[in-house]
Specification:
With 383 residues, this protein is of the alpha/beta class. It folds into 2 domains: 119 residues, N-utilizing Substance Protein B Homolog, Chain A (Orthogonal Bundle); 221 residues, Vaccinia Virus protein VP39 (Rossmann fold), CATH 3.40.50. 47% of the residues lie in helices and 15% in strands. It is built from 16 helices and 10 strands. Strands 6-5-4-7-8-10-9 form a 7-stranded mixed β-sheet, with helices on both faces. Strands 2-1-3 form a 3-stranded antiparallel β-sheet, covered by helices on one side. α11 links the parallel β4 and β5. α1 crosses α3. It is elongated. 43% of the residues are buried.
């Protein structure tokens, strides 16, 4: 297991240095599930870990030593299934591969001291693990108790769900690889949280309808739309994400058209003489509804980025609307629980376009619904 701690420390060190997406840092190794648990725990509990470890250090370390201390302390304080001796000994063993000869000694001393004084350590509140700007927003919006429950939800390991062609969602056994599940190679399911059902339900795609999935990667919602019999065009502007989209649709056996821009889609509509019966705009967002699944996202959040995303969402909505047929339905959705991206965005869209009416909207808070936090609103275009 020493290699697992080493892999976790390497991922944490790289994340601290570069801010890369957490999922891209995880190695493909036999202990990947354990490594992910350690890395994600560090990301979720970074604030208290830094505060607590600071009390055991005369000078704050950087690089490999900082990462190893986070990895060891995360196991001791937040991972009760890991025996104390393993948390310390295996993390020290991992430290022996570092260039600095004093690193194993420092790791051993700090972690053993932390073990001795663990009962005296103040872990703080669940809200205290989030950036202050987010904690303050949630407290003002939901109240202290509800905000604390929301934070606690996001600090737990996320379940992986499989969405099947018949509409079922099934939780994957912890530690089991998706590729080992019967039906994977045949495209019988896609990895999707039950929260995705909110937008798909409002869209209500039917056999024979033309549907545009406007922000389609990685393709899970595209598949769910196609499984209901609709003819789907999947649009994705990012080349890397578009390649992943095409790869996923191929595995799933979904015969969707893949486009790189609204301009490309518009040219095809003009050439073939049609508009879409329904459009799904599952827009880029701040991901506050999926902090449980994306533990690094809380550290990328800022008011400035939120404002930028709100502007981008409005731009996408306005660009997609001309592709909607009279009488058609457009569904706007996010995996956010921020009002600027949700209700406020929907109201502004409606105000800009007098030929629309909003027929339904729904928001789900994760600590109340038991799945990812989402928002969706359905608009009808007048005939």
């Amino acid at each position: 297991m020493a290699n697992s701690r080493r892999a976790a420390a390497f991922a944490v060190a790289k994340w601290l240095a570069t801010g890369e997406f957490a999922s891209s840092l995880l190695p493909d190794c036999p202990d990947r599930a354990f490594v992910q648990d350690v890395v994600y725990t560090v990301m979720r509990r970074l604030r208290p870990l830094r505060r607590i470890l600071g009390g055991f250090l005369a000078k704050w370390p950087k690089g490999e030593l900082e990462a190893l201390l986070y990895v060891g302390a995360a196991q001791i304080l937040y991972m009760p299934d890991v025996p104390d001796f393993a948390a310390v000994n295996e993390t020290v063993e991992a430290a022996k591969s570092c260039e600095g000869k004093s690193i194993p000694k420092v790791v051993n001393g700090v972690l053993r001291n932390l073990l001795r004084k663990r009962d005296e350590v103040d872990l703080g509140t669940e809200l205290g693990t989030f950036p202050r700007a987010i904690a303050d927003r949630w407290t003002a919006r939901y109240g202290k108790d509800a905000a604390e429950r929301l934070a606690a939800w996001h600090n737990q390991p996320a379940e992986t769900f499989l969405a099947y062609k018949d509409g079922r969602f099934q939780a994957l056994e912890r530690g089991r690889k998706v590729t080992e599940v019967p039906g994977y190679a045949d495209g019988g399911f896609v990895v999707q949280d039950p929260g995705t059902a909110v937008s798909i339900s409002l869209l209500d795609p039917k056999t024979g309808e033309r549907v545009l999935d406007a922000c389609a990667a990685p393709g899970g919602k595209t598949a769910q739309i196609a499984w209901r019999g609709a003819s789907v065009t999947a649009c994705e502007v990012n080349p890397r994400r578009r390649a992943r989209l095409a790869e996923n649709l191929k595995r799933l056996g979904v015969a969707a058209e893949v486009a790189s821009s609204f301009e490309e889609v518009s040219r095809r509509c003009a050439l073939e003489g049609f508009l879409f019966d329904k459009i799904l705009v599952d827009a880029p967002c701040s991901n506050t509804g999926v902090f449980r699944r994306r533990p690094d996202a809380r550290w990328n959040w800022s008011v400035a980025k939120l404002k930028s995303l709100v502007a981008l969402q409005a731009e996408i909505l306005d660009a997609a609307l001309p592709l909607l047929a009279p009488g058609g339905t457009l569904v706007y959705s996010t995996c956010s629980n921020e009002p600027e991206e949700n209700g406020d965005q929907a109201a502004a869209f409606l105000a800009r376009h007098k030929d629309l009416s909003m027929v339904a909207s729904k928001e789900a808070l994760p600590h109340e619904c038991g799945h990812d936090g989402v928002f969706a609103a359905a608009f009808k275009r007048k005939i």
